Amino acid sequence: MHPNVNLIEKSLHGITDGTMTFDCFRAITGIRSATVANEILKFLLERGIGKRPGEALLSFSSTDKLRTSILAVSLGADVLRISQSLSWKDFERFASEILVNCGFQTTNNVRFTKPRAEIDIVATKSQFGLSVDCKHWANNGRLALVEHTRKQIQRTERLLSTSSFEFTKVVPVLLTIYPNALSCDSNLVPIVDINKFQSFVDEIESNMDNVFCISRY
Question: At what angle do helices 22-29 and 34-45 cross, to 10 degrees?
């Protein structure tokens, strides 16, 4: 049985990178009942979120807050409210972790000058790459997404023409926290929500014929 989604939302306030006491977690989250707090923590631990080295101690990783946010949304929490509790760093760390686990090497915050631009994550595997723009917002209107895909194509073209990365093909990707109106389309930059990112990365190399990519000539 799932706990009340409002309690999952409350637990977000107590999930920070590092170690804390059980009593500190209760104080930060406002979950006064020790029984209820234990039930919430058990629910999270069963889903790979957090660790409990002792009855009185808790520890969380840098990606646990985002994992809990995604879980809360899947249980019916308000998307906008949850989104406002996350930082862009939480999002980028989680995306990088997925890419590394799939065998990619990652470089975060690749910057260009004249004009200034930045790619959030560049992931490489042999001569193949992903250029990932992490979008940390809940409202993904069609026009805004189309404009962001256009800019991501431009940044990826600059990456291929000016960087020292050795790949010959790069797929520009927009990564969002929550599901969006536009899905992956062979005629568009892939727009992928974080829940589907793992499977997208796992399948990308075998699916290159159906995905928009930019080649180095």
Answer: 100
Task: Decide if 123 contacts 104 (C-beta within 8 A).
Answer: yes
Burial grade of 181 (CB within 10 A; 0-12, 13-18, 19 or more): exposed
Fold for 88-215, please state it: Trna Endonuclease; Chain: A, domain 1 (3.40.1350)
Using CA atoms, how far apart are residues 2 and 39, in angstroms rounded to an integer?
A: 10
- Report pLDDT digits (tens) over 35-55: 999 999 999 999 999 999 998
What is the CATH code of the structural domain delimited by 5-83? 1.10.10
Quote the pTM value: 0.76
Other CB atoms within a 10 A radius of the CB of residue 14 amount to 24
* The two structure tokens encoding residue 180: 């969006």
Q: Do domains 5-83 and 88-215 have the same CATH topology?
A: no
